Amino acid sequence: MAVFPSVRLRRLRKNDPMRRMVRETVLAPSDFIYPLFVTPGRGVRREVSAMPGCFHLSVDQAVKEAEEALGLGIPAVILFGLPPGKDAMGSGAYAEDGIVQQAVRAMKSALPELVVITDVCLCEYTDHGHCGVVVGEEIDNDRSVGLIARTALSHARAGADMVAPSDMMDGRVGAIRASLDKEGFSHVPVMAYAAKYASAFYGPFRVAAESAPQFGDRRGYQMDPGNAREALREIELDVQEGADIIMVKPALPYLDILAKARQRYDLPLAAYNVSGEYAMLKAAAAQGWIDERRAVLEALTAIKRAGADLVLTYHAKDAARWLAAGGLT
User: Fold this and answer.
1) Torsion angle, alpha carbons of 137, 138, 140, 145, to 10
2) pLDDT tens digits, residue range 17-38?
3) Are strands 32-38 and 55-57 parallel, antiparallel or unpaired?
4) What residues does each domain of the chain span?
5) N or C: which end of the chain has fewer CB atoms below 10 A?
6) What is the pTM of this model?
7) What is the dihedral of CA 324, 24, 276, 122, to 10 degrees?
8) Helices assigned H by DSSP within 140-248
9) What is the set of active-site residues?
């Protein structure tokens, strides 16, 4: 076996062209899905205090934002809605004229080539902030699944290219698949938030989506951070129920779960680079403690290296620009 000095691994690191030639993991704008927060009104572009560079957008502004992203080579957006009002049953989630349904119609009319994905959950629409129907102080799984499937169907009717249930209710992927197929939307894929952990890294999102629980927390339905084998069980169930794409959320604290999922499953694998991960890098960069460009591209590369085919990230536009300008150097 050859040893030093015959083997010198630095030979292939001496300059940027050489490093690019042998780079194992290559990041591209086509890997990204860009999350957008849609709100009622017109001409609204209101920055989210906890997420610098992210905005509450009225439908017209969301279309412009999506058009810009598409121009940067980002093929898809995922939509989250802020309804004009909330109630106990989250009725705004499945209203035919709901805010997400309006945004889907506008985007598919203006940008037919854009892949429009919708987040399917009730938390942004309920006055209690939970992802399902509350009975007493418990989340009723089966009653919630019915409304979640109804929400997915309303999104498909509006023209969504893909639906993405994020609620973590048991059986919701199968219910959505059955509902879509029955109503003639067998062509609409399901991207399942398959292994979604009860994470502290969702805090800024809850500010953006105005969806913090009004009592308790979500640990009764989202996964315990200490569990890895359970994640594979969750993914397996979603695969059996008909998921077309599986997702791990959050991404960076759960790279081991991503790697395990990649080794076991051949389905396309997504990872959500969540709001807390985004906000931490933004805050550190604002203080001058890190090089934002290098840190973001390194983090996104790590997510892809761990096995993700698709990365949902608020950094999408900046990362696409940086990649066009040379990427990792």
Assistant:
1) 100
2) 999 999 999 999 999 999 999 9
3) parallel
4) 24-324
5) N
6) 0.95
7) 90
8) 141-158, 172-182, 203-209, 229-241
9) 196, 249
